[in-house]
Amino acid sequence: MKKLLKPLLAIIVLFVIIVVGGSFYMLSYSLLPSHNKGRNEAYMWKLMKHRCPGDSLWLDSLRASHALRDTFVIAADGDRHHAVYLWPNNRKKFNHKVAVLVHGYTDDYISMLPIAHIYYKMGYGIMLPDLHGNGRSDGQEQQMGWKDCKDVRQWIAVATDIFGCEKAEGKRMVPNIVVHGVSMGAATVMCLSGDPLPYNVRCFVEDCGYTSAWDEFSLQLKERFALPDFPLMYSTSALCRLRYGWSFGQASPIRQVAKCQRPMLLIHGDHDTFVPTAMVYELYKAKPAPKCLWVATDARHARSYDKHPGEYARCVSSFVNKYMH
C-alpha cells in the first residue's frame, strides 16, 4: 500500500502543478495578450483607413481639423481612463442625440470611427471611450465587458454633461443616448443593458457580442488547444476571480440582456467563427421585446460594417430613429 501511495501522491502533486501553471498561462493568454494593437494609434489609423476606404477622407478630415477632443476620468479603482468626443459639424443645429461607441478586444476608439461616421451624418454628438487596458486608458487586463460596463456608465454621465445644452429658461437639455458596441464592446453594451440606467439612455446596438466570457473562452480552449473545459476553465476562472474580482461565468451578457427592457438591435456576420453566429440567435431569444436582428451575409467577425457599409448604416439609422426622440 505504501509503495502505491508515493507514486499516487507524486501524480496528484504533478497534476496540481500543471493545472496551477496552466491556469496562470491561460489567464495571461486570455486577458493580457502580448500584442495589443490598440496601444498603437498610428497603426490603428492606417488599419481603419485600409479596412474602410469609404470613410478614409472623413478620417483624414478629423485629424486635419483636430475635431476629436480628449477627455479623461478617474475610475472607481483609481485608474485614469481616456475618451475622445466629437461635436456634429453644425453645433447650432445639434439635435440633442449622442452615440456612445464601445470598441472591441485590444482595439481603441479609432476602431469605432467608421461607425461613428454613421451617427455623425445623422447630426449626433459622439463619445468614444478607450476601455480599461486599451488605447490611452490605464490598466493592463482585458475585462471582457463585465467591469467595462461600469466604466461605460461613467462615460454616459460624461457625455450627458458635455452634450447637455442650456435652454433659454436656464434648464439643461439632456441628450438622448444610444450605446453601440462591437465584439467585446458589444458584450459591454449587453452587460450594461440589464442594469438600471438613466432615462436618457434610449436604446442599444450590439454587433457580434458573445453569450458569456465562459462560452467564448471555452470555445477558444477547444479550437486553439484541443482541451476540454475541465479542469482549466474552472481553475482559470477561479484565478480570475482572485486576481481581478470576477469570474468567467459572471461575465454573462446573455443573463444581462434577458433583463433589458429597452430596445436593442443585434447584428452578427453569418461567417463569424470567432464568436459563432449561433450565439446571436441565443441572445436574440433571451432579449425581451423591443428588439431587432440583422445577420450580415458573408461577414466574418466584426466585419459586418466593412462588408456592407451602406446596409449597415441603413439598418442602424432605421433602428435608432424609432427610439431616439
Automatic annotation (TrEMBL):
The entry's keywords: Membrane, Transmembrane, Transmembrane helix
Segments traversing the membrane: 7-27
Superkingdom of the source species: Bacteria
SUPFAM superfamilies attached to this UniProt entry: alpha/beta-Hydrolases (SSF53474)
Start and end residues of each Serine aminopeptidase S33 domain: 97-191
Gene3D superfamilies recorded: alpha/beta hydrolase (3.40.50.1820)
PANTHER family linked: ALPHA/BETA-HYDROLASE (PTHR43358), ALPHA_BETA HYDROLASE FOLD-1 DOMAIN-CONTAINING PROTEIN (PTHR43358:SF4)
Protein name: Membrane protein
Phylogenetic classification of the source organism: Bacteria, Pseudomonadati, Bacteroidota, Bacteroidia, Bacteroidales
